[in-house]
Inverse folding.
């Protein structure tokens, strides 16, 4: 699947919807768990863990996009070496 194609955008949007749904469900359950256990610190710990997971997912998405952009031609002169566009590489002239 190429970068920024419709398939890629479809997968990114589905991933975003799943993350938002999981965050919403956990945020709904935190007050219930607080009242059930009687210890509000457990709810706060769960909220911190939730945001850590969301931050890791965002970092994963950002690096996926950066890797996608670099892999699809963002740094071609770096990969080909000096003189590659002039046809000088591999001909013994450098």
């Amino acid at each position: 699947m190429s970068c920024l194609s419709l398939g890629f955008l479809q997968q990114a949007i589905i991933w975003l919807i799943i993350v938002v749904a999981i965050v919403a469900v956990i945020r709904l359950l935190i007050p219930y768990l607080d009242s059930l256990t009687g210890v509000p610190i457990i709810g706060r710990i769960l909220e911190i863990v939730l945001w850590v997971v969301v931050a890791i997912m965002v970092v994963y998405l950002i690096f996926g996009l950066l890797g996608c952009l670099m892999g699809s031609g963002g740094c071609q002169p770096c990969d080909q070496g000096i003189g590659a566009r002039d046809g000088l590489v591999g001909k013994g002239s450098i």
User: Anything to note?
Assistant: The longest helix spans residues 40-74. The two ends are 37 Å apart (CA to CA). Helices lie at 6-37, 40-74, 76-80.
